[in-house]
Amino acid sequence: MNFSFFERLLGLISNVHEISAESMSFMEMIKPPEDISTNGHLIEWLFMYTTYVNLFWFSLVVIGIFGFSFLYSKKRHKKPLYTHGNEKKHLIITAAIALGVFLSVDLVITRVSTHDMKEVFWNFDDSGDVIKVQVLAQQWAWNFRYAGADGEFNTADDVVTLNDMRVPVGKKIMIQMTSKDVIHAFYLPNARIKADAIPGRFAKLWFDANKPGKYEIACAEMCGTHHYLMKAQLTVLSQEDFSDWVKESQSMAIATNDTEDVNLRWGWKWGSK
Amino acid sequence: MAFLEQHIHDEPKTFVSKYLISYDHKVIGKQFLWYGIFWLLVGGLMAMLIRWTLAYPGVPFPIIGSLLFPHTGGVVPPDTYAMLFHMHGTIMIFFAITPILIGAFGNFCIPLMIGARDMIFPTLNMLSFWFSMASGGLLLLSLCLPLGAAAGGWTSYPTLSTNLGQPGAGQTLWLLSLFLFGASSTMGAVNYITTVITLRAPGMDYFKMPLTIWGIWLTSILNAIFVPVLGAGLILLTFDRVFGTTFFLAGAAATSGKGDPVLFQHVFWIFGHPEVYILILPAWGIVSDLLAFFSRKPAFGYKMTALSLTAITVLSTVVYGHHMYTTQMSPLLTQSFMTLTMLISIPSAIFFANWLGTIWKGSINFASPMLFSLGVVFVFGLGGLTGLYLASTSIDLYLHDTYFVVGHFHYTMAASVLLGGFAGTYFWFPKMFGRMMDERLAKIHFWTTMIPLNGIFTGMMLMGWAGMHRRLYNPFIYEFMEKLMPLNKFTTYCAIAMGIAQITFIYNFVNTIFNKKLPQAENNPWKVGTLEWDMPSPAPYYNFKEIPHVKCGPHEMGNPNLPEGKDFQYQTEELVKA
Is A72 in Cβ contact with B362 (below 8 Å)? Predict the structure, then answer.
């Protein structure tokens, strides 16, 4: 499709000099952020499928509106057809449309969604070589907690960071999450995932990252005046870099964590409800 | 069928009894119309401020900015921004759309179209309007508080909407205001339901009622059942705020016992999802009628349309969970809600097919009500189909709380309902006020509304797909959204264009009502056969001298057996057969 018209339209009426979007094509502009996860494409696939089905059905509606408006305007078509639309053939056509919608829309989307959720996004199996992270959301920051050398959460040697999440490439990252004050939502557009962090509840989430680099974590649920500033950085490191960072942070944590400080003990036992 | 005897009231003579404390359903309908249009303007101005902030973060709002926000030199501050989108949502849903579609058209159309002299409970009807005035007053009052009005998003999720996140009295006033609104809505709903059941003219079976009445009636049923649920939630939240209970508090804030914030979401959406159908059903009804009237043929599959509307009404009560996928309900619940939500596509497909069937082989008169009705078919097509993405549990992981959602619900709840409301206004205006609105201005209004409207809401959906989430004061502090600046500007320009286009409507509306030089409208300018067109324009205070006897359906048009020179028949006439 040629979007140069839209590009020109957008270019014409916006002062694009302030950002680099000037040279960006329209399609590039509306592209979701880069997918760094193994499973993000599942969501994109279903989105695109739904788009194609929608385009099909909506084009029928558009053809109906514009086509009939053209063919059957007062000038062109003086004598309307007198029908109540309750003859057998009319009912059959309507039923066929309803069946078509059911088969193409309901069945496929429901099945694919259910499959994707069951097999992938709800698969919270944390056995094996996974990185476990506890997240505490608060107005307006993200706290991250990694178990220290003892592998236990909420002990004095935990690595605790603020707005700085670091994960290794290619490993399953398991998150348990809650909130201190109001409802927040952990939103990682690069992995196409999101879950609410609700006070008094634990949310579970997992993702993996296949491309080293720096990405943004956002709060997606309105959480107050500075909701828009509630942003954390996700740094995806190579596995060596990550274990170096963990080792260094652990030794630092043991040296600097104040064991008496209750504010540092916001963690919980992994998996507890 | 038993009929209640309906007396003719005394004619109101004074200004006060005629226009202010009137028992007449037509006057109350007009009061609701003015009231809704007032709030539409307030909510629209708020939308402009929001859009401006998204396109020009940190730039003063032009012209009136320095008046509104003197301490920042005209820039919308972040706390005010939160208040704006909270109030925009609240006002548009509860104070603009509900009064216009349900208050105004419900009141005006029900007795006239079913052949009654008034609503069954005229006093309750009046009370319903004054309750909504009171609730609007409280909302306005909350805007004047030192800590500002409520600013947690129109859904007011706790714990943000408890004292923890909203320390000011604004949120409490918001709760009380909505509670009064709920009382007003419930009164209206009870009145409408009973009126339709008891006061239908002799011969007016349920399947001879115009589809407008079907839409409004189904809406009223949903209203009567689900608005009280909202009321319960509002009261509990008020208790949490004022009396220190902890129904919805958890975590560190719950110092005296533990509640659950998600509980409120359940209560809110049990009401909230039927609410979106409460808003759209009257518009669907109006459109179903108007498409038939202006195609000069009977509504295609009338019974099927009425039944699909009923099916959607029933389904709408069991799908609310799709608003809460990200709260991680049990997988079983989540999947059930997805499946039930998806099922709505089937009755929707049926009445869409019927709408297109109605204009098929018609003889279409593109008068302004018809243009707006076709507009509704177009925008609701887009709005309905984009709901499929959000109903899916997996796509929702990514799209939840993004601008895709915003674009989607504006298409369904704002665009369709607004266009449906305009269609109704242009259509019933002669019967309400006795003059015809200017057709040329109405057509300009249609095109200048329709084109930018699609720009705004398609723009929003595209931003959402690109990852932009909701309720951000400045989205561009995120690197992945910087590229969306031009699209945001485009959307804002469209919004401003659409805002300006409404001036045509306001001018046309006010001028036609008050300009005494304009000619009187005919009794039946659109040549349709429903009961309200078989009486003088504007409708007299007693509606019908004689209660009519209904003998045929509402859209008997284009019947080849009709005598020469006539292409429709009134509902009071026996169906002409060969």
Answer: yes
Whether A273 is covered by a domain: the verdict is: no
Number of H helices, E strands in chain B: 18, 0
Range 461-490 of B in CB contact (< 8 A) with A: 462-463, 465-467, 469-475, 477-480, 482-487, 489-490
Which top CATH class is B22-533? mainly alpha
pLDDT grade for B13, boundaries at 50, 70 and 90? confident
Rounded to whole angstroms, what are the CA distances from B572 to A49, A138, B6, B404, B405?
Answer: 51, 66, 19, 48, 46
**Nearest-10 Cα torsion for B257, B263, B264, B265:** 150
| Residues A136 and A260 placed together within one structural domain of the fold | yes
Please give the residue range of the domain that contains residue A134: 130-264
Q: What is the DSSP letter of A44?
A: H
Its pTM surpasses 0.90: yes
For A173, the enclosing helix (H) or strand (E) is strand A172-179
Which helix H or strand E contains B126, and what residues bound it?
helix B122-143
Nearest to A58 among B300, B381, B475 (CB): B381
On chain A, the residues whose CB falls within 8 A of the CB of B470 are 220, 222
More confident residue, B67 or B405: B405
In this prediction, residues A44-49 reach a mean pLDDT of 95
Distance CA B226, CA B234 (A): 13
Contact, B36 vs B97, CB < 8 A? yes
pLDDT band with cut points at 50, 70 and 90 for residue A3 = very low
- The structure tokens 């005046």 sit at A225
B254: helix, coil or strand? coil
Residue B5 DSSP code? -
Domain-located, residue A187:
yes
Element (H, E) at B339: helix B331-343
pLDDT in tens, B317-357: 999 999 999 999 999 999 999 999 999 999 999 999 999 99
β-strand partners of A194: A187
Residue A270 falls inside a structural domain: no
- pLDDT tens-digit map of B280-328: 999 999 999 999 999 999 999 999 999 999 999 999 999 999 999 999 9
Contacts of B553 (CB under 8 A, 6+ apart): A84, B207, B208, B298, B302, B571, B575
Which among B223, B61, B36, B229 has a CA at the least distance from the CA of B133? B36
Residues A98 and A142 placed together within one structural domain of the fold: no
Q: Is A222 part of the contact surface with chain B (CB cutoff 8 Å)?
A: yes
Put simply, the chain B residues between 347 and 376 with a CB less than 8 A from any chain A CB are 349-350, 352-354, 356-366, 374
Does A50 contact chain B (CB < 8 Å)? yes
Which pLDDT score, from 0 to 100, does residue A128 have?
Answer: 85
Contact B394 A42 (CB under 8 A): yes
Burial per residue of A124-154, b for 16 or more beta-carbon CB atoms within 10 angstroms, e otherwise:
eeeeeeebbbbbbbbbbbbbbbbbbeeeebb
Q: What is the pLDDT of residues B508-535, one digit of tens each?
A: 999 999 999 999 999 999 999 999 999 9
pLDDT score for A1: 40
What is the pLDDT, as a whole number, of residue A156?
Answer: 81
Q: What is the 3-state secondary structure (H, E, C) of A56-95?
A: HHHHHHHHHHHHHHHHCECCCCCCCCCCCCCCHHHHHHHH
The average pLDDT across A77-94 equals 92
Determine if residue B361 is left, alpha or beta; phi over 0 gives left, psi from -120 to 50 gives alpha, anything else beta.
left
Sheet holding A203-207, edge to edge: A159-162, A141-146, A130-138, A172-179, A203-207
Same domain, A171 and A89: no
Higher pLDDT, A233 or B13: A233
Tens of pLDDT, residues B110-146: 999 999 999 999 999 999 999 999 999 999 999 988 8
- Domain locations along chain B: 22-533
Confidence check on the interface: ipTM exceeds 0.90, yes or no:
yes
